[in-house]
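Standup notes, protein team

Yesterday: finished cleaning the Pectinatus cerevisiiphilus set.
Today: Sigma 54 modulation protein structure.
Blockers: none.

Input for Sigma 54 modulation protein:
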Amino acid sequence: MTVNLKDKLMAMIKTENKKNPLTDEQLAEKLNVLRETVTGIRKELNIPNSRTRKKEIVKAAISAIKMSEPNISAGSLVSKLTERGICISRTYISDLMNEGKNNDIENNTEKFTEEKDVFSKLIGCKGSLLKNIKQGQAAILYPPFGLPTLIVGESGTGKTLFAEYMYKYAVKQKVLEAEAPFVLLNCADYSDNPQLLVSILYGYKKGAFTGADKDTEGLVERANNGMLFLDEIHRLPPKGQEMLFSILDRGKFRRMGEVNTERTAHIYFIGATTENIESSLLLTFRRRIPMIIELPSLEDRSLHEKIKLIHGFFQQEANRTNYKILVNAKIMEAFAFKKYTGNIGQMKSEIQVTCANAYVDKINNKREEIYIGFNEILYQKFFYDINIQKNNIRFNDALFIPNSDEIEDSLLTTKNQYSLPEDIYETIENKYYELKNASISNEKTEEIIWNFLLGYFDKIRLDSQNRNISSLDELKYLLDSSIIQLLKEFLNFVRKEQPDKPINEKVLIYLAIHLEEAIKRIKFKQEIMNPNLLYIKKNFADEFKLASQLAQRLAERKLIEIPEGEIGFIAIYIHELMKSPDRRNRIAIITISHGKVATEMVNVVKKMLNVDFPIAIDMPLDVNPVKIFEQVVELAKSLNAEEGILFFVDMGSLVSIGEIVHSRTGMQTRTIDRVDLVSVLEAVRKADASEESLDNIYYDIINSKHNYSLVTVENSDKEPALISMCLTGHGVALKIKNVLSRYYAGVNIFSMSIMDDNVKIKINNLKQQYNILAIVGTINPKIEGLNFIPYDNNFTKDKRMFLDYLLKKNGSGLAHTLIREKFVLIGLEGATKKEVLETMGKLICNEGFVSFEYINSVLRRESMSSTYFRNNVALPHGMPSFVNKSVIIFAVLKKEMHWDKNGNSAQLICMPAVKSEDVDAINKLFKILKQKEKVEKLLSIQKQAEFVELIRKAYK
Ligand SMILES: Nc1ncnc2c1ncn2[C@@H]1O[C@H](COP(=O)(O)OP(=O)(O)OP(=O)(O)O)[C@@H](O)[C@H]1O
């Protein structure tokens, strides 16, 4: 073959009519050579055949026509093409459209969209994987069996997934049949037995080696007319690599041990390796693999892609669990900046583990959605190597809804009600300019922003109660450690300076987050606007001084200058830090009355008690109460009264205000009618002292107002009891007894008849033995010194609260309900800690004190860290939310038991299953367990009654 011939051929093709290219036959004729010679030269020069060359121009023409007529039929298309001088048959068009192999057809056809769809599911398809995808497509489309391909990339970069997508693409392109096999073999699985690997891959003849007892087909045969994917191909021994040559070159191979038979296999071949191919594969083998696809490591992918991957994986989990998943913004950020040596694979599995942990928490806490907050990741070691880079991206909490497609970028900036209030600067700026635009005076603007700021801190307070993060250390993987260190030092400094001040340390967590944001802002030279600076400097002078000291240290460490406005913000955090964690505005008090009585009364109260929180609403006599109701509902919504609102009203329809507000806002409310100054004073004083709950205040007030004939409850160590009463002592009294025992399991309840001549004597007798808290009944026997609670058809929640209150006041009575002989297990034997805990848990569960989940929550708690107390005592416990009624179960083990990894052994196991509101009651128990001699005594007791007696004494 002369060079001349090649040149001639190229020149002919260059000048041919592009709409009707020359076939090999025509070229051969013109050149006076054999057709095969033309085909050979063409292939050598990498020139496609005439059909393919023509296709380019046909495709371009179809594409142009389809732009204006997307739904054009094949027939009309032929006519239009003929008009353009392209003469082709209808069959050619259909072939073209159906032809998978050469289908890199026009960009605008539906087919193209479909093609793209296969790879478009891969995150990064338009970014870091774009080139790889093009390579992958080219490798598949290359006739007749694609180009052997090697995918190279670190572990977890998505090599297997990419190979699977190439397979899907091949099927979509009809290069492979729909049912074509996809055979995967990970060569690393047989790395210690290369001979086995080769025989699995190529099959073997009976007797080929010891143990080869029958002719066996290999994976290569199974992959015939499909795809063979060899992962970790560098583990394939040289012999195995050589055998692959023959398949790749000629489609021929032999099973191990075969000599005469040569078999045929048509396969699309893809290999993958994490290794450097130069050193790990035979040169001869490398040469036969023309397509090398190098997948980028996760580190080399853009932040945007990383975030999309994170979103995608959380979305997958939401779909899988069918629950909403809410992820805290800082966690999103941490996931994005964490270093993943195992690339995408590691990222995916860490997201799965995080979701699995949070799922357990969701079940335990009966949450509606899976919440991924700081606590979730604290269990995991993987956040230890987070490297939070300084960046300008704002992450927000993200919510993933099962089976929703919305995992697009929008989530990056999605806000929802759970967002941490950390965009304070922007909000203040926005508010400021809005107010300025509305020509609001400076003074009013400052006031509005000040109120906003107060609300912001209320949210922080509320948030710090709900979230379980309790110390700065828990943030160390998420925030700059030098800020955390600085705040710790600052805390010590404040403690030393003001030893008597209570400190709400949780505020530091928010201050830390805030400072991180502030530093970012200062570094990016964004303004920090604080319209209340003057006010803060004047009214929070001490805090401002402390803030300046903190800011100075921060400035030194970060080499930045902290503006005064920022010091102003820090000052409010410090103010919040030093505020007693119990705040008076947890209970709001609102007085509503006709005329101006409410305002007058509240003014007196404010002056007398030097407080500013009771709110007065005066109701003009001619105003429709509905209007007032609306106003009050709005007002209630704007308050941050976590424990509820106590309403004082004067009369009439206002009495139902509490119920209306409750039903519209879900807030707890109580309403006291016939408002009087003394009651309001009393309530405000109690709320201000922050000691009492809403109900305690309410019942104390109604007690003094004699709504019920409430008398003081004796604090005796007698067992508490209730009396149910009706006319006959049967019918209704028994019903009352049933109802009461449902609510107050463990309290003694006696039914009595008012007609019984001896009723008073009987009650007096009972009083000798029991602490009678109240008589609940249809008729008041009017017995001096005894509370009476009227019982009507439904025993309302109000009345139950009243009883709860009585029971609670009866402190020592609690000892009787909490500590019971039947829950003292002396001489318990258990092979393992788990067995002991389950025995104890099941006992109280069977009696209805706790739900079954409680036992699991005990085990889960135990697995987190040891509950060993001291003096051979362990205090295992579970979630209060699974407790129906508070109780403490004790076990004195026959032999002390190894309890934890720290080498502690326990013999007295005390499992308090108490509702949150009864937690105080177990403090007394701790006092006993702290005393070594008391514990020794308890361990030596043989009788349950004695054991109970000793503990109950502590409650006296
Ligand atoms: N671009 C991507 N989009 C979505 N998920 C991906 C992407 N790349 C990888 N993954 C997911 O990451 C995980 C790891 O991918 P894969 O197993 O394919 O990696 P690999 O490189 O084959 O890993 P190894 O070398 O460890 O075998 C898989 O669960 C895969 O679904």
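Follow-up from PR in the comments: Residues 442-466 form the longest helix (25 residues).
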